[in-house]
């Protein structure tokens, strides 16, 4: 479910008239996504995505998010550009909420990525990192390792144990990871949430990277670690898929080779990435009633991934000949 606000045909036609995109033919609410309301808009000139920013997004960050899409798409990254209104603005206010019209990109999100698809995603991520280095805006990562540790602490051992008896142990792990976080790795703007559902693919080609609403300034290797954790396992995090994981790194390095410091840090970065999603999922789980329309994501899917990385050490990130 991801249409939180009702917009009638007249509201939509009035809104679309502010853009030079033709006249409205149809508008359908999009079920996927949780944070914002999204519609697939069709005009007599093409298809677009309309997003209404509902929650979790600080409107002061919108120029960063929308400017980043334009910057990356101008650099030929597979990222949707924003459609500016007739006054040149990338966002408008409708009923007190910000909305943006975004280019529609074709493709589907894969559920069981192949090594070839993972290679393409790795390469596209590296392309985004390189292209973002001259993006003029910055955004601090609100979900850094110490925030994740404090989130788990705030949830509390008892509440975490009510989700799974293993979860309280992640508080101490998150503290240790935050205390040992590698400093001074090369930085750029990172996506920070490049899960398979945020990538559109046509066969083995990446046709769209979407949902940049966690993007921030950060270590590029951490972004690769997030993507590795998101792509290289079955959804429960019980089985590591080594060929997919290796292909993702290979694809990344075909565009931007890792430095030796980055490679040495990858295991810890991946463990930190797992605890980032363990923490946010645990917090959401406790904040969301079990009968809510939104499906709760299981924090244990990422606690299991953490276990894999902790046991595997550097092996998943070793340099290939
Ligand atoms: N530019 C685009 N081109 C084509 N489809 C898109 C585009 N942007 C979004 N979509 C579609 O809309 C869906 C929801 O988009 P998105 O994931 O950005 O929503 P969200 O509510 O911000 O997400 P989340 O809750 O996962 O953070 C996507 O799964 C995809 O199907
Ligand atoms: N991609 C995240 C949600 C956004 O933080 C998850 O699956 O937990």
Automatic annotation (TrEMBL):
Belongs to the pseudomonas-type ThrB family. GO terms for molecular function: ATP binding; homoserine kinase activity. NCBIfam families: PRK05231.1 (NF003558), thrB_alt (TIGR00938). Pathway: Amino-acid biosynthesis; L-threonine biosynthesis; L-threonine from L-aspartate: step 4/5. It comes from Pelagerythrobacter aerophilus. This is Homoserine kinase. Its EC number is 2.7.1.39. It is an enzyme of class 2 (transferase).
